[in-house]
Amino acid sequence: RQFVQSKLQIFYEEELAVHLVIFDEVLDHIVRMDRVLRQPLGHLLLVGASGAGKTVLSKFVSWMNGLTVYMLKVGRNYDVMAFEVDLRHVMKRSGVKKEKITFIFDESNALGPAFLERMNALLASGEVPGLFEGDEYTTLMNECRA
Fold first, then answer.
1. pLDDT at 87
2. Whole-angstrom distance, CA of residue 24 vs CA of residue 64
3. Distance between the two ends of the chain, CA-based, in angstroms?
């Protein structure tokens, strides 16, 4: 508990000015998230009420493990095509550049069923069908080999 509280204090100062109260259930979630994110190809699906702290805890545990946090910037004109561009970007950073990334996709990012279908495919198989095609796929494979 003291270790997490000391890390949380540094996190407040360096990253977010959101103060969390650490009680046993929060500590349990932090430990579980930490265990999963330390595993190769570790990924989580967090479900709970909006405003319960899932995003802040995800950012905190990612920060503790040296992971870069990537969140979508959804605006009025954001559509499936823009989402696919974001997915390509984050997947290239992770796969080609070997950057350790936490990709946070919350309920406000799910603007329609197509968004959920792509995220489901990514979580289930590690890829989104049709995301990289033709010359873009060939370029990606060459970048991975280099």
1. 93
2. 19
3. 44
Segments in 15-53 forming alpha helices (H): 24-38
Are 43 and 123 a contacting pair, CB within 8 Å?
yes
What are the contacts of 48-51 at 24+ separation with CB within 8 A?
A: 50/107
Long-range contact pairs involving 1-4 (C-beta distance under 8 Å, separation at least 24): 1/27, 4/30
The CA angle 34-28-119, to the nearest 5 degrees, is 55
Give the number of residues written for the chain.
146
CA–CA dist 6, 27 (Å, integer): 13
- Collapsed DSSP state (helix, strand, coil) of residue 111: coil
pLDDT tens digits for 108-126?
888 889 999 998 898 888 8
Single-letter amino acid code for the residue at 39: Q
For residues 98 and 92, give the distance between their C-alpha atoms in angstroms, rounded to a whole number.
8
Q: Is residue 51 classed as helix, strand or coil in its secondary structure?
A: coil
